[in-house]
Amino acid sequence: xxxxxxxxxxxxxxxxxxxxxxxxxxxxxxxxxxxxxxxxxxxxxxxxxxxxxxxxxxxxxxxxxxxxxxxxxxxxxxxxxxxxxxxxxxxxxxxxxxxxxxxxxxx
Length: 107
Known about the structure:
With 107 residues, the protein is an alpha+beta fold.
């Protein structure tokens, strides 16, 4: 079991969550589409060679973004990451993946 955490602009949070859910993430026991999210502010500066979805090269951009966390079984983590990358509007989406210990959180 893994925990997947990603950051996504508010404008795309539902579309990206749905893509990751469709890949099998967000399941816990007899429940699906499980996630936790909180709104915050992301910051980045597109460098030369980038093709930013938001902002301009060389200028710091601040964006309302959600941090979304969910569980993902080992047999679908690669598909979930692929779905995240495909649905996310940024060319370099920020995300973390943590392996969870067996027996914790009902896994």
